[in-house]
Amino acid sequence: MLQFKKGAVLALALLSGTSAIAQQRTITYYTDYDPIPLAAMEALIADFEAANPDIKVTLQNFDHEGYKTAIRNFLTTDAPDLANWYAGNRMAPFVNAGQFMDVSDVWAANDLGTSLASAQASMTIDGKQWGVPYTYYQWGIYYNKSVYDQVGAKVPATWDEFIANCELFKAAGIDCLTTGTSALWPGAGIFDYLDLRTNGYDYHMSLTAGKTPWTDQGVRNTFAEWAKVQPYITANHAAIDWQDAAALMVQGKAANYVMGNFAVGVLKEGGMTNDTLGFMAFPTINPDVVRAEEAPTDTVHIPAGAKNPEDAKTFLAYMASAEAQTKWNAAVGQLPINAGSTVDTSDPFLSAGFELLSTTKGGIAQFFDRDAPAEMAKIGMEGFQEFMVYPDHLDDILNRLEEARQRIYK
Amino acid sequence: MTVAFTDAEKPQRSWWRSNQQWLTPWLFLAPGLAMFILYVIWPIFSSFQLSLYDYDGLGTKVWLGWDNYKELFGDRAFKTSLKNNVIWLVMYMLAVPLGLAIAIFLNQTVRGIRIYKSLFFFPFVISQVVVGLIFSWFYAPNFGLLYKLTEMLTGKGTAILANPELATYGIIAAGLWPQIAYCMILYLTGLNNVAPDQIEAARLDGAKGLKMLWYVILPQLRPATFIAVVVTVIGALRSFDLVSIMTNGGPFGSTRVLSYYMYEQALSEYGYRMGYGAAIAVVLFGIMMIFISGFVWKMVRDERGNR
């Protein structure tokens, strides 16, 4: 009898439980986080659910690389209500295929055009916004202060000074510029900055959008600057990963590294500190060009097949808010996009990045493989890698890229 | 009164009874056949069909006709991949004689020979991914063993995987390590079956060393050689995992093989040209068919000969 009573109570509890859930609306959210950002997002979701008790967010996390394939499947078959992705040309295929929902109304209702102004251009296709950006990080040159002191080099402000320093480093047997292009993309960071500094943001965007031919004189000027530093780049970079190149810098065998802010973690794990690791903006090449920077932006989107777009939009508005962005980025060590957010001032790299990006007049590029279509990015990055090994193949490389451009951007 | 049975009144044999002789094998084959058709035959035709379209996996398919194939034959990356596939096929064949040499070397009765045999067989047991990783550390610039060794000998380290001319050979060497072990084990079992009386007879006739090997042992090892060649050819054509682990097809695409290029074009982060990838797959299928039909033809011929 007691047994029966227990069962009845349990059934009752279950019943009441389901009725509570029935009143609560659910939104599903697919993400591609590593452990630290995942924990940060779970904390945000807890805050959101506390503020909106009638909405429950179900988060499903994917492996970062696997997500890039998975998203193509789940958008067409079983779409969640929210999905992580990237800004710029990376979202274009999904927008053009009608897989992402137009969220311009969220932007208008929350005045995001003002608070997220720095990333608005990269979220806009056909005059509409297709998602909400919530984090980015700066690129630039990370350098080893100890080797700068060792050879008596000064932190350069111009490209000529940078090259002059390279002579000093070479004499000391140190790689002036290190990189590891085994995965191709680190080389694109160097190209992006050389092009942004030589020809400016508009030219670079026109190039990655396929409107400027690769055989153009402007591109040749960029590669001419690259050729100046090519002899000082770490040999065999084609076979090393970016983490291995970071190791060279930790060991004092390399002086400068064109990288994104995520490298700081790796460099510090290797033993560098705020006293030995420095950050500088990429030096000026053409003084007439307005300074533009590179800051890949991560975004949240509502798939067109979302079952609960209304509540998903509430969540998007929350993700766009200054508090949410401050909290998430503080936990992860990246930069919030909302102009009202704050960053941890005790982290010199974050503060430097925030300063750098918020004072950028020229524009913010996403990174070569996000600004250019995927196929062009691949062929381009192979060309960059080849140029850094065989600079005399330049004509061949540019002709190949131009052929690809004419085929890819129909 | 005797009743003559007319035809119609004969005891009826059911349809099943009269047909079961030829039907039964097909019934037993049916599950396997269904799987084979669904997962092998149908995809072959479907990918051939896909290779005539421009398709990114999301949008609409656009009919191209033979354009993908035309593009393929002007595509330098495709030529590199094809060339590398040929290099793989040729170099991989080294696994057969080397496997034989090790098998003969190990085919003796010494204390602890089983341990030596298993040690030699060891690389075949570990995953290709692990083999690739081990070798890429072995080759790694700055800290790899080979790099240090060449640095010591010549004063300048060679980073095999950073050199577009050497990288493919570096990967093949990594692939040969487990493949030699595989051929070795095939030959070891083959050597167990070599008739001792024939060897004795050859001894009496004065056969020794290489002559013995060539005229007496090798002919008896023909089945093992056949299988060794087959698995080596297949291994060379499937050389995807090592390329993917060790170089990602780099430096600048110089170590691509067809299977990797197909993956890159159709499925990788920078790809999603399903039609173009399918066209590469069709070409790879064509190359495999040359070998497969050769092997099948030989097997059928041997079977007929045995009857």
Give structural notes.
- The complex is a heterodimer of chains A (410) and B (307).
- Chain A has 410 residues and is α/β, with parallel strands linked by helices.
- Chain A folds into two domains: 2-135 and 297-341, D-Maltodextrin-Binding Protein, domain 2 (3-Layer(aba) Sandwich), CATH 3.40.190; 139-294 and 363-408, 3-Layer(aba) Sandwich (D-Maltodextrin-Binding Protein, domain 2).
- Chain A has helices spanning 2-23, 35-51, 64-76, 92-96, 104-109, 112-115, 117-123, 145-151, 159-171, 185-198, 201-208, 217-229, 242-250, 263-269, 309-320, 322-332, 348-358, 368-371, 374-389, 394-408; strands at residues 25-31, 55-61, 82-86, 124-125, 128-129, 132-136, 139-144, 175-178, 254-260, 277-280, 293-294, 297-301, 364-365.
- In chain A, helix 2 packs antiparallel against helix 16, helix 10 packs across helix 12 (217-229) and helix 13 (242-250) packs across helix 14 (263-269).
- Chain B folds into two domains: 16-50, no CATH class; 72-306, MetI-like fold (Orthogonal Bundle), CATH 1.10.3720.10.
- Chain B contains 14 helices and two strands, in the order H-E-E-H-H-H-H-H-H-H-H-H-H-H-H-H.
- In chain B, helix 6 (128-139) packs parallel to helix 12 (240-246) and helix 8 packs antiparallel against helix 11.
- Chain B is flat and about 65 Å long.
For the largest interface, the chains and their residue counts are: A-B, 35 and 30 residues
List SSEs of chain B in N-to-C order. HEEHHHHHHHHHHHHH
pLDDT average of chain A, as an integer? 88
How far apart the termini of chain B lie comes to 56 Å
Mean pLDDT of chain B: 88
CATH class categorisation of the largest domain in chain B: Mainly Alpha
What would you give as the CATH superfamily of the largest domain in chain A?
A: Periplasmic binding protein-like II
Structural class of chain B: mainly alpha
The total beta strand count of chain B reads 2
CATH architectural arrangement of the largest domain in chain A = 3-Layer(aba) Sandwich
| Classification by helices and strands of chain A | alpha/beta
